């Protein structure tokens, strides 16, 4: 019982990541599998210049979320909301770097 109480205190203090956290590695794998080839054919290279060009469309974390959903809808990919979150976190951590 005491141990359980201690764990709860640690979790509340943020010392233990008990809540589901986005998995950037998973986001990268999903992006490479489902998204990259189309971006490649548009932008050349590995396609990532879409995210780094000066006139990129996405200008905020909310906008990134929307664009990822738009691309999912346009392409009929079946990705869960958690999978989308992993992809958004991967793209943000790697290219966009918006503050959370
Ligand atoms: C069938 C083609 C296709 C697929 C598959 C696709 N996209 Fe896209 N994506 C596009 C096009 C087209 C654009 C807009 C390019 C432009 O405006 O020049 C775009 C743009 C984007 C942008 C915005 C880039 C910017 O300007 O800031 C993001 C983010 C993005 N896609 C994420 C994804 C993700 C994540 C997936 C996979 C779930 C995905 N896309 C799958 C075609 C695709």
Protein model, in words:
With 100 residues, this protein is mainly alpha-helical. The protein has one domain (22-96). Helix content is 66%, strand content 0%. It contains five helices and no strands. It has helices at 2-12, 24-43, 49-52, 61-75, 81-96. Helix 2 (24-43) packs across helix 5 (81-96) and helix 4 (61-75) packs across helix 5. The protein starts with a helix and ends with a helix. The model has no long low-confidence stretch (mean pLDDT 87).
Ranges where pLDDT stays below 50 over 5 or more residues in a row are: none
Question: Largest sheet at a glance?
Answer: none
- Please, how many helices? 5
**Count of domains:** 1
Query: Which H/E pattern describes the elements?
Result: HHHHH
Number of strands: 0
Class by SSE composition: mainly alpha
Bound molecules: heme C
Quote the beta fraction.
under 5%
Shape: globular
**Helical proportion?**
55-70%
Work out the radius of gyration: 17 Å
Distance between the termini: 36 Å
**What is the residue-averaged pLDDT?**
87
Task: List descriptors.
100 residues, mainly alpha, 5 helices, 66% helix, globular, binds heme C
What is this structure's SSE topology?
Elements: H1 2-12, H2 24-43, H3 49-52, H4 61-75, H5 81-96
Helix pairs in contact: 2-5, 4-5
Heme C binds at residues 31, 34-35, 38-39, 42, 50-51, 56-58, 64, 67-68, 71-72, 75, 77, 79, 87, 91.
What's a quick, concise take on this entry?
With 100 residues, this protein is mostly helical.
């Amino acid at each position: 019982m005491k141990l359980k109480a201690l764990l709860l205190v640690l979790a509340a203090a943020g010392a233990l990541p008990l809540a589901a956290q986005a998995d950037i590695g998973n986001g990268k794998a999903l992006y490479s599998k489902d998204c990259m080839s189309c971006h490649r054919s548009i932008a050349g290279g590995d396609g990532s210049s879409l995210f780094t060009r000066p006139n990129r469309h996405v200008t905020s974390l909310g906008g990134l979320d929307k664009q990822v959903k738009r691309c999912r809808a346009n392409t009929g990919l079946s990705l869960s909301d958690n999978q989308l979150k992993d992809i958004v976190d991967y793209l943000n951590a790697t290219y966009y770097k918006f503050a959370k």
